[in-house]
Protein: PLEC protein
Organism: Pelecanoides urinatrix
Amino acid sequence: RLERLQRIVSKLQMESGLCEEQLNQADTLLQSDVRLLNAGKPPQKVAEIERDLDKADAMIRLLFNDVQTLKDGRHPQGEQMYRRVYRLHERLVGIRTEYNLRLKSGAPAAAAVTVPLGQRPRQELDEATLRYLQDLLAWVEENQRRLGAAEWGMDLPTVESHLGSHRGLHHSIEETWGRHARRRTLGGRHADTAHPCARPQNSSKSRLRHLESLHAFVSAATKELMWLNEKEEEEVNFDWSDHNPNMTAKKENYS
């Protein structure tokens, strides 16, 4: 068991390094396009940035799955590996947010950085709010679609894979909802469960709960099937002839 967990630690160390490289690449391309946008030129690397961010997102969800395995196994490096993957996730969220607000919406970065909030023209604030709401609604629709199309799995390995993948997605949804709730509270409004942004959060919580229940059932059923297979092997390979000196013990066992 310890050897298996140590292999997961080594895998996490290697793959988190690859994920960091993926994020570095996305960030480099993003900053290059932001400079073009600020110079009044069209961005050139939008498709590549989206592809890099999607790859990093998928990698992080699998990393969260491995981290959960370490924590379930009470490995001493479980918490350390969790913090490492969590930092990668925070960086992904930061890059994706900057991409959505600066590049995808076509807003020059300088305007958002150099002008203090209290001094910005009302029109710019309204446009920024509109972009934020558009991005938020797109996020809601995309995550509702992903949750609606998600599969469950028919055996232990696939259920475990879906559970680990969804834990990463759920973590991302909780983070986004938390940031949105803080923003609404700072703006004098309270985040509530009736808000559209809460829909994927509630759907995600429900799917996570069902996946954990399914995983517990399939794990128990798999253990029972393994026990049955072992007993079947014993019976098939047993010498049932009267010459077998263990036949008396076998009869007593059956009785």
Notes: The domain at 1-103 is CATH 1.20.58.60 (Methane Monooxygenase Hydroxylase; Chain G, domain 1). The chain has eight helices and no strands. The longest helix spans residues 198-237.
